[in-house]
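User: Please predict the structure of the protein below. I'd like the answer in structure-token form so I can feed it into my own downstream comparison script.

Assistant: Understood. Taking the following sequence of 249 residues as input:
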Amino acid sequence: MRHPFLMSGAPLTSGTLVAGLKTLVFASGVDVPGLGVTAVGMAWFLAALFTSRLLFNALVRLFDRGGIGVVWQGVVCAAIAFCGLSVSRYFGVYLPLDLDLSCYIVLLMWIGYTARQRGLEPSVSKPLLFIGAGVAWLVLAALSGLELSSRRVDGFVVATVAALAGSYFVCWVSMALEKLKDVPVLGSFEQALVFCGQASLAIFAIHAVDWFIPWQTMPLLMTLPVPWLFASIVRCGCDIGLAYVIKKA
């Protein structure tokens, strides 16, 4: 977690403690000047994932107990998503632990859950759906905008469909690579991706705390063309490598 207090060297006072507590409670991915909340950094993702999962589990239990059909489930989840985004985007109210953002994430979770329950998940034997999802992703993403940490969803329906199409596309590619695990070169690439998926939270945690390393201002990297790209590659490589060492230790 990256917190300005740790970097600024400011004296430890009641004011800084309160500000730090507000940062942790809201866990916002961006600054919220109106509330005096400082961005918590990449850790917003963990808070949003935690809150979204709790909310999703509660909704599924209610749906099952009430015998609510899939159509009405979709209506309820869509309404919750729209209300959550409206609270933060139109009223400027950011809820603790990204609850307003989690309302939208729940909709995406429910669609994935329902697709799997009904056997609609990606299949390598359906290449036309893969192509269609890829085209839809590119076209719809260009017509909309989706950036969760800042609660930016430009075109609620179009952005959501684009996100789902992109997820389908990536899942299909992952399943296709899994089929090629016995091919020498592609097999090694597939194993590397499997490790990254299994250790994704560890890699995320390492990536979130290595901010003290001046990646983008290293003299060696600064002499290369597009230094930010090489800095990103080196940083991600170090994060993945350290996660691998920790797992093998």
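That's the full token string. The CA atoms of residues 29 and 149 lie 5 Å apart.
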